[in-house]
Amino acid sequence: xxxxxxxxxxxxxxxxxxxxxxxxxxxxxxxxxxxxxxxxxxxxxxxxxxxxxxxxxxxxxxxxxxxxxxxxxxxxxxxxxxxxxxxxxxxxxxxxxxxxxxxxxxxxxxxxxxxxxxxxxxxxxxxxxxxxxxxxxxxxxxxxxxxxxxxxxxxxxxxxxxxxxxxxxxxxxxxxxxxxxxxxxxxxxxxxxxxxxxxxxxxxxxxxxxxxxxxxxxxxxxxxxxxxxxxxxxxxxxxxxxxxxxxxxxxxxxxxxxxxxxxxxxxxxxxxxxxxxxxxxxxxxxxxxxxxxxxxxxxxxxxxxxxxxxxxxxxxxxxxxxxxxxxxxxxxxxxxxxxxxxxxxxxxxx
Length: 350
Description:
- The chain is α+β, with helices and mostly antiparallel strands.
- The chain has 2 domains: 29-79 and 234-350, Beta-lactamase; 83-233, 3-Layer(aba) Sandwich (Beta-lactamase), CATH 3.40.710.
- 33% of the residues lie in helices and 19% in strands.
- It has 13 helices and 14 strands.
- It has helices at residues 42-47, 87-100, 111-114, 116-121, 132-137, 146-155, 159-164, 180-184, 186-194, 198-210, 235-246, 259-265, 331-349; strands at residues 16-20, 55-62, 65-71, 81-82, 214-218, 231-233, 250-251, 254-255, 270-271, 280-284, 289-293, 296-303, 307-312, 317-323.
- The strands form 3 sheets. An 8-stranded antiparallel beta sheet has the order 3-2-14-13-12-11-10-9, sandwiched between helices. Strands 1-5-6-4 form a 4-stranded antiparallel beta sheet.
- The longest helix is centred in the last third of the chain and has 19 residues, at 331-349.
- The termini are far apart.
- Residues 1-39 have low confidence and may be disordered.
């Protein structure tokens, strides 16, 4: 059975696989409109979202319950929204679950060890000496300009070879840089470690336990699901991912991820990541952005166009957003508008 997409924004590439997962769907526990002790009613805050032209949906979870979700701009909360680079955070979760199962040796393994055939086919590759941990923390030292090279990566007939031919730009482990091609190697790494595709790993380790019963995942020219972007989820299901991290790797009282992996993923491993005001102290964990909103520590998955999945553990809160994908010159203003709405939601519970 194929699930039809209601999205008005088709993926730019044609290689997508549609999947339906077994299991019960997620039920809304209750709608929230009650006044909180220190802020406006949540429904009042969500009402302001209609003034953000690019916003398409928001979902808010607290203590594992869906408090509210709302669509904007003629959209629907049932849409499978493209979450873009928030896919990276999902891939990091799957690395953690695979390490916990003993099927990956750990973060010190090099890409050359994890993908020996690619290393042998590309002698002298700078990527071969990069560790798995450096991929997760964005400290590979490999040169990749996402503004100019994303399309070349997305259309490459051999994305693994593309990544293994990246030149060195700086020392590994020194500073954070954004690198789709390096993160793209997580898909073949996980496939080799597990013997199944990234989509099936996600179904077994994450989507099944969280009751996520529908998703889409784009494939590259080699036929492999892309680990750096390409996943589509409903906004409430994206919020489930954020709540999983906010609750230390548990879902409805059951352990899904090791608590120490969640703690490392959402703790700043490297500073000076992309700013996301009004959040401050922006850093990076394991493919999760980290920072603080006022005195509240937060971590978030971040996709192009302000697709956010934000975890605020001290507030027992998770927020997810979906929005359109603007041209690059409009991106800062759109990020700021959607992040501002997320901040007002946090204020409602702070």
